[in-house]
Amino acid sequence: MNVFINKRIPEIGISMLEKEGIHIIFPEKEDLSYEEWLQYCRNADAVLNVGNTFTYDKTFFEECPNIKMIALYSVGFDHVDIQEADRRKIPVGNTPDVLSKATSDTAFLLMQSVARRAGYNFQKVKDGNWETFDPMDALGQELYGKTLGIFGLGRIGFEMAKKSQRAFDMKIIYHNHHRNQQAEKELNAAYVSFDELAGNSDVLSIHASFSPEQKDLFNHSVFEKMRSGAIFINTARGGFHNQKDLYAAIVSGQIWGAGLDVTNPEPMSQDDPLLQLSTVCVLPHIGSATMEARNGMARVAAENIIAFSKREKLPYCANPEVYS
């Protein structure tokens, strides 16, 4: 079985595949054009995809008829046409669970960084602009007892809620497609409508899976409903928010600020006016960037490929309906 891996992953995943006699194809360079990427995929039975550079759509499946399985080095699978994969009986594996704590840590970090203007104040130190004490300069806000609203209370959202409640005694509200009974029982989380989530959250944090119909879901009309002191956090997908509307909402005082680990577009321009605001903190999509999480992702991706090579069901499958 030939598996094309478009970028290097931690050694634990490579070793697991090699131990099972699976042949790994690495590209001569990682910065591939679309046509170069397709050529590698045409020569493989399966793909282990690292990053979201290209889309696994109908065109891809037509161009690469030998591909029988896709393993993703991510939880999200919005860059895969799942319906087309289902139609062709191609299982798609992802890497849930292993990065939930790391990604929620990033959301928790962003929430505090925005509340206390950490990035802005760190830049002042680097610029040598550490002035004498001014009791009214660049004041932040405290999070104790405030309301955390979570859009998409799954594994990552649950970890974010748990941290926020334990550290700051925050109240938890959430909006999901389905009720989260565990969160309601363990965290006393309250299920609310989308409009209630926007209007009642002091911090609104996105942890949902992204789909095309949710593009720019968080736009001017939503920011207008939020509290003037609200903090907007997005560690899911940049497509969820309209970046120009987000900037306008902060500048106008509709909301307090934003913490982003994903941007729209991504990567964002270094000239983006958001970066000039003192209540904005932006990170370069590092949600899962810990040794523990990335090793876990490599292990899970390898487990999916090995299971497929043995004609077994993928243990972590984004489209389990493919087996029905």
From TrEMBL:
Residues 5-319 form the D-isomer specific 2-hydroxyacid dehydrogenase catalytic domain. InterPro entries: D-isomer_2-hydroxyacid_DH (IPR050223), D-isomer_2_OHA_DH_cat_dom (IPR006139), D-isomer_DH_CS1 (IPR029752), D-isomer_DH_NAD-bd (IPR006140), NAD(P)-bd_dom_sf (IPR036291). The keyword S-adenosyl-L-methionine does not apply. The keyword Oxidoreductase applies. SUPFAM superfamilies: Formate/glycerate dehydrogenase catalytic domain-like, NAD(P)-binding Rossmann-fold domains. Keywords: Oxidoreductase. GO terms for molecular function: glyoxylate reductase (NADPH) activity; hydroxypyruvate reductase [NAD(P)H] activity; NAD binding. This is Glyoxylate/hydroxypyruvate reductase B. It comes from Chryseobacterium indologenes. The lineage of its organism: Bacteria, Pseudomonadati, Bacteroidota, Flavobacteriia, Flavobacteriales.
